[in-house]
Input
Amino acid sequence: MIIPHPLLGPRDAAEFVYLGDAALIDRPDWQAEDALAAFHDYGYLRDNPAGPHKELWYHEQGDRSWLVVTRDTTTHEITAVELARDVARSRGRSA
Amino acid sequence: MTQQYRIKGGGQIDRSTDIAFTFNGKAMKGHPGDTLASALLANGQRLVGRSFKYHRPRGILTAGSEEPNALVQLRSGAHQEPNTRATTVELFEGLAATSQNHRGSLEFDLMAATDLLSPFLAAGFYYKTFMWPRAFWEKLYEPVIRASAGLGRLSMQEDPDRYDKGFVHCDLLVIGAGPAGLAAALAAGRAGARVILADEDFTPGGRLNAETLSIDDMPGADWATQAVAQLTAMDNVRLMIRSTVYGAYDHGVYGLLERCTDHLPDPGGKPRQILWRVYSRRAVLAAGSTERPIAFGNNDRPGIMLAGAMRTYVNRFAVAPGQRIAVFTNNDDGWRTAADLSAAGIDVPAVIDSRDALPPIDLPGIRHVRGAGVVDTVGRKGVRSITLTDGQMIPVDGLAVSGGWNPNVHLTCHQRGRPAWRDDINAFVPGGTLPPGMAVAGAANGALTLAAALAEGRATANAQIKELGFKPSRAAAPRAEDEPRESAPFWYVRESTKRAWLDQQNDVTVKDVKLSYQEGFRAVEHLKRYTTLGMATDQGKTANIPALAIMAECTGKTIPETGTTIFRPPYTPVPMGALAGRARGRDFRPFRLTPSHDWAKANGATFVEAGNWLRAQWYARPGEQGWRDSVDREVLMTRKSVGICDVTTLGKIDIQGRDAGAFLNKVYCNGFATLAVGKVRYGLMLREDGIAYDDGTTARLADNHYVMTTTTANAVLVFRRLEFARQCLWPDMDVHLISTTDGWAQFAVAGPNARALLRKVVDSDHDISNAAFPFMGCAEITVCGGTPARLFRISFSGELAFEIAVPARFGHSMMDVLMEAGREFDAVPYGTEALGVMRIEKGHAAGNELNGQTTAHNLGMGRMVSQKKDCIGNVLSQRPEMIRDDAVKLVGLRPVNRADKLIAGSHFINRGDDATMDNDQGWMTSVAYSPSLGHSIGLGFVKSGDTRQGEIIRAVNPLKTGEIEVEIVSAHFIDPEGERLRA
Amino acid sequence: MPDFTLTSAPPLAGYDKSFADLRLTSPADLALVSLALPLGGEDAAQKAIKSAYGAALPVPGKSVSAKDGARLVRLGLDAGMVIFTHATPDAERVVAARLGGAVYTTDQTDVWTGLELSGPTARAALERICPLDLHDSAFAVNDAARTAMEHLGVLIIRTGQDSFLLLSASSSAGSFLHAVETSIENTI
Output
């Protein structure tokens, strides 16, 4: 596979390490009332879609950036690649 | 032996040079430009092998990579290579080829009696017969079957050849250098695109080399030569011959096997083959088509060959496959074989056409048998006559068969594309979704005639490169005519009562397909598994379509309804050596060496692999009888005076930023907010699920500057997690990470004389007294007159200890200096074994204890997990099941009988209980012989172990005999109060 | 006067070998210092770099040569490297002093080992281990990229039309040299 890196252009997937669902960005609030349940879901529950999937890839043999790659799990077509840091900020992790 | 079947004149061979080769030891000659198959035929050698299952005599069926029969063994000794297709082997001086799969000589195969057993060996035979008794399978059936069935033999020696891998990039990959591929490459090349043109043959041109067709008023082969010359002159075009594109992978990546030196007697030290990864933006598949046979009785005799292959041998290699050759066809193309054979002076007694129609080509003097077929043939080691459906018998020494042509759609299906059926050509063409970026042109796309293929190659390439922004050149398509190509579906001669072969490599017949149908294995994928159709090294390139046409007939479905099996890479076999590339033996993976590696090597070290690292395991001294002697000495000397260990392999991560401290507080479960500059703290990292992950120390060098150490094994993983935390979880923290693992040579200096030793090395303006530089202190210092260094007062051994780091370039020298400075203290170097013994004696957890199943609570560090801050893992670590009072706890263990040896992995059982998992009390994680205590000691996890000190339980090891009684003790066998390390 | 002295021995020091039209050398005294741009302080950092070196960090994947011969490489959004010739083990301090605290610096000199490959067929040799497209149109002079070659992380910089600087981890210098040498031997 080839991942079009937003800063560096197309790079072989062999340079990357796969983590999984980009929902891992949405780490729950440790002080919330339901923190235990929320962390349980965060840690263990994943959607497993046949189709577009937002997932985390780490450019380990590259610029060390974490990326959010939107990949169709049935075709491997990649439709979007974003810096995970930008995604994290946009999901309100700046606080 | 002379080349008695060589046709006078013509062919793309260099008659001025002879090439000597042998087949089964028989000396033969050929010419440059020959394949082994063409040279064998030129020498009259038509019998080349025995079939897989029945040991039937077999000859050469094709002239290309689709060959099912002519598999031979090449070369000898360690270079021996089985199962190579004689039809693709380029002849070279001294080539030694032997036939395969027979006992005794090829002509009188002792195993040929198997053929008489054929009524019992039909499809599914193995499944039905060799099931019972079960014990016989491994001991009797399999060895016997393996000895009788099979292909060539491995040399059983290490492959002496070199292989390589490589990466190439292009705008357009053109697969196949036949007419469509050449036209495509010319178009894209002229437009300025970066083109790779790959072809499996050693002479580009594809069918142009095998035909007598003209392009631009010149012979097709000459046009191909001219086109290749034009392409070679273009900087932006790379022609790769002897190169098979074997797989189409995601996002325009293709696998390509280049055979670099297989055609040379001696590779001259260069790689034999290169496995290329081709990165393409677009691709044109111009892989041509493959002729298929018609099945009829005894259609596997040497001398019976595909009609197009006959033309190849006559036109390209100037070889007559026989002297009297009949043609059996269901299509117009077979007639062209009759014409070309006849033109070459070969007697063509008849063209038998399954169609009841007028001849497409007028061939005076050749009998036309309309609406007929061949039912049987005679001639065990070479066809001598054929019998037609009307009973007439024609003496021949060759038979050309054409059942029509299959577009080579394989690569279009590698991403699950399904081919589509075209009634007009009675063949599957690319259909459904092609691999993104791929387009198909020429015969591979069903454009089976020359003018059409040329035009389509050019147009397809132009369309592809236009998408990339190139402006197609105005050069016109080459001029050519279309050949007659009418065909009728006709798959097998139903009047035949004798075995009619479909898959000649796996010995599958028409009857086997019908049997498969009768027994309910009707889906193509079932048919394939039940009969082994298409499962041989040729993957049924000539066999599959006729077989599934027969299955379609049985089921009353159409061929497209019946469908094909899935095509998967590789298109043709790829040697294991090429897949391995350079990754063999010591080159399997890179080695990482510590800065003192050479010093250690020169001082008796034995090394152990720790990931990619080689670490000194122990340093043997003369007179020591085994590793234990060395390790015991290293431990005792270190505890008595001072020892030195290279600990460079521990991961070092430089952490800087305004929020560095806050960040550490997030990633370690214990508090880091209060760590002062000049201090080191032990840190434990959890996974988000609360399981212990990694531990190490982090030093604060300056307000915004920390250095973290990780375990050797987790250095890369921890770095990755920290980057995840930094970028994905806390994106607005100002914190920056960079690995400095390799940058610093770091040595543990441990033992009562550690400080005295270091005082001789550390520059005197740095006070390292206990008062000025206490336990868990750190400082940036200089050593040996100004060399920058870092000093940490940390201890893994439990002794007064320091770790001292210098820039790696000084590492070797530093080891020398430390040993020299330590001479007066009898300083010893120690390896990872002594390191391990000392940490067990001290009760420090390591990888065996942090094994991915244990929590801080289990490790006795539960109170370290701060509940006053947000950090990775703290929420889930507090789940009730993970903090049970009766959870396993880390304890020390010693044998009640001090002479007993503890065994890691033993499980603990209370006295009087049965040794069952229900009664399991925990397990032993680490054991060592403690030279300090004089007996075996262990660490382990015991249920409620923290409250059971002094209790005696059993350490049971069902894998090794016996069990022993052990006493639960403190994990801190040595200096439990920690007085030594604070000294 | 100290009792002991340390001698410097970088892993590939002094390596210099010619193969047909190619030359492979380990550049002497190559110093590397990583630059991390503080979050929110990127502009100030770039300003400091520019005033120290006469050039700011270029965009990721590019490098520039500074007035004094140092090379500034941009490795990522907030990361770069300055590569220069410097013999003593204080490269970080030298760079930090020039940047006046506007950039986080870490000495990387001993983390890496360098090989310079030069000659007309350099690209053909690299093709056997480098997955990146090194064609002029894709990897021009002064382009820089991190990738993996033979399982080793490598920072590759095109220093000239026919020359490339390859940097890889110093602990695996032997394996790295072997990988590059094998590629050369397999292609010349």
